[in-house]
Each structure stands twice: as structure tokens, then as C-alpha cells.
Amino acid sequence: MTKTVYIKTVGCQMNVLDSEMVIADLKRHGYEVVDSPNDADLLLYNTCSIREQAEEKTYSALGKLRETKARHPDKKIGVLGCMAQKDQEIIFRRAPFVDMIVGPGQLHALPELITKVDAGEGRQMAVSLGRKDGKQSLVARSHETFDPLRDPTMRPTPFQAYLRIQIGCDKFCTYCVVPNTRGPEQGRAPSEIVAEARTLAEQGALEITLLGQTVNSYRHRGEDGETDLAALLEQLHEIDGIRRLKFVTSYPKDMSRRLLETVRDLPKCSPYLHVPAQSGSDAVLRRMKRGYTIAEYMEMFERIEEILPNAAVSSDFIVGFCGETDADFQQSVDLVRRCRFKNSFIFQYSVRAGTKAAERLEDDVPREVKAQRNNELLAVQDEVAYDDNQKLIGSTVEVLVEGPSKKASKADPDAAAVQMTGRTHCDRIVVFDGNRRQAGQFLDIHVDDASSHTLIGRVRQVELVSIGV
Ligand code: 5AD
Ligand code: SF4
Q: Residue limits of the Radical SAM core domain (predicted)?
């Protein structure tokens, strides 16, 4: 009899990709995916630890399963991802009915753990070694990936795919839990990456987004020398079928001239860069241990403008980091105004156990001040994006159509003519009136209107030329 699995994924693109891999693996073991936990024999929660709020949401979702498990003791519950790695047994303590805890570097072990639970061997845990639990090579090996297993049905759209080129992070920004949960930075072998990209292209992927925590720091040393991201992009660019290549997230210090020139020279590379600044204040950046000053960030930014004048750049900011004064915060506001980011993800600082900031710095910005700064920075970012999007009105943009917009999906799921959504090469969101069959097509859209997050347009009619009979 086939067994059923439900998976709930929160957090970053890495988690979306991990869930795709887990499902591909479980399907091979006879599982079928269902959309509701009520119909599932196996309930999986792929979790995020980046901020406290994300963790509390997961714990509250798990809390609701207490009764479910009491009524259906045969249902198995697994907690995967960064929270599994970070909290380990704490999860068993807070939610004793959980059967499995699996860190992001141990996901390949899941089928075996399920077998053990089914065999009555009790609850199971597979996590990677901590950063200080052994030799660097041993710790690195305990964070494995199993990426070649792909399942296009699990993707948000079949023609867009993520491809991991790097795991872990070695930057150790003082606020961040990722170097602990995802382990040491390791670049995957280019041959593996290219082979996987070929598989994706054969499965119909038109757009591939390369993933890494600091993706532009990617390096792999092999027999034929060292490969960096620029060299990797050159190899991937050769693959037929792929039309767009993106990469996220970039680290400001590693945004080399060579990489930018490669993006400029390879037409499939999207002129879109996500290069989080995190703060506009040198004092805050120093406490965050980001490794650059604002002068250096601006130097990098000007390099982007010089080599890729039409690129869209987006950023992340943390507001209310330890010791952030009003004056520091105003410098973040200034940076948004100077750089005019396409968009910024803005977060309120959240203390994470096990990080340097948690050990050494005081979380001294009151909650209300964090919330207020968050709103203010968002308003400035929206204003900048609104003004820049207005300038696109009247132009024509090439859009990869993703599917019905959120509005359309809610309205009438069966209607043929619906509002569709897609993205430009620069990653701008575009909505237009169309039909479902256009999903996966590249269309020229004439921009009629714009808000701070969205361009609104219509399909440009191809001019009919009279051939005069
Ligand atoms: N608190 C708030 N935001 C954080 N981020 C990372 N760690 C924290 C934290 N402890 C943000 C950073 C990062 C993004 C993915 O999440 O801006 O770029
Ligand atoms: Fe976290 Fe900094 Fe690494 Fe990004 S670069 S994952 S913020 S430690």
C-alpha cells in the first residue's frame, strides 16, 4: 500500500530545495504527496531558525499535533531543517510526540530513520556535528547534500529550478545562526553542478537560480585547477534549453569585477544581484563583523553601476541590532536612498543562541523602536522602488510567465482568462491579463502602470503586416 506524506516548508530557498529533494527521495521509497496533514501517514516540517518568530511559529504548529498524534498514534512526525540542527533534543522535550529530528545536512538519512521508527526502535535523531565537535574535514563531511535527486513536481513552477552550488557559510556574521546550522562553507564540484543543470534543462527548466549562502564566494579546487562562480556561469551558459541564470545570495566583499563582467557578457545571466548591506552604519557593520565599511560597499555598488548599468540590485537590512542608535539607523535610510535598491528585505534583530552577538552584545534596542525603524525603512524603500518603477511605464519588458497571480488564484480557480504573473530578467514582478496556457512562455509585456512592488501591463500585440494580396 502506498504511504502518504505531507510537508510544510518555511524559510529560505535552501529549504524549498531541501524539501524538493526529500520528496524525490521519499517517492522513490513509495510515498505519495498529499496537501493536507489529515490525509498523511507522515507529517514533515522543514524549519527555519533565522529569527525567533520563525521558530515560535513552528513550535506552535507542532503543539497542535499533540492531539492528532494521540488520536492517530500511527502517524509519524518529523522535524527537519535548521531548527532540528539547532535545537536537537529540545524539540523532543517541547514536543515529545515527534518521531524524528533531522538536520539539513542529514536529510539523506530520512528513509532509514522512518524504517527504524516503523520497526519500533523508538524516536530517531540525525544531526550534523557542531562547528567545534571535531576536525574541520569531519565536521564538513557531516553536512552532506544529496542534490542529484530531483522532482520537478515539487517545484513552485516546472520551468524554474533552484540548484545548490555551495553549502554552509564561513563568514560568521555575529547575529547569524547559519554557520552553525548549515556548517562549513563547501563548494560542490562543477562537474556535478553542470550534470544537474543538464538534468534540469531536460526536465524543462528554463530558468535556474544558483543557491549559496554567499554564492559569489563559490570556489571549488579540483584536478584541473580552481573554479569560481564566473567560470561556473560560463560552463552553465553552454547548456541548451536554459534561458536565464540567476544566483543568490551575494556577499558584498566577493563581488569581483570579473564576475560582473561575466554577467555582462553572458546574455543568459540575469542583471539582478541580491547583495545584502545589512546596515548603513560602519559602527554597526563592525559589531556585525560583516567585513566591510560603507565606503567599501559603495565602491562595490559603483562597480555594479559601471559594468551593469541596467542591473537591479536588492538588499537585506537588520534594524535594531545591538547598540544601533538613531543616527546609525538614519545611515541605513541614507544608504537605501543612495543605492535605490529594487527591493529590500527588512528584519528586526532577533537574538540567536550560539551566535557571537548573543554571547557578547546586549540586545538593547526596545521592541517598539525596532518595529518603528522597520516601518520607516520599509516606507523609504517603497518610495524609492515606486519612483523607479514609474520610470518603466511605457517600456516593454520580456517576462517569463510563472502562472496565475495570487489575486487570480483566489478569485476563480477554473476561469480561463485570468491575471497572470511573471518576472523580468531583472527579477521585477509583472502582472497582466492573460490565460493559464501562457505559463512557461516568454512574453513581451507593455508596462502601463506600476506600484512599488509590481509592474502592471498587457501583452504586446505582434503587429500584423499586410502582405497585400
Ligand atoms: N535577526 C534578524 N535578522 C537576521 N538575519 C539573519 N540573522 C538574523 C537575526 N538574528 C537576516 C539577514 C539575512 C537574512 C536572510 O536574514 O538580513 O541576510
Ligand atoms: Fe549568515 Fe553572514 Fe553567512 Fe549570510 S554571510 S549566512 S548573514 S553568517
A: 155-387
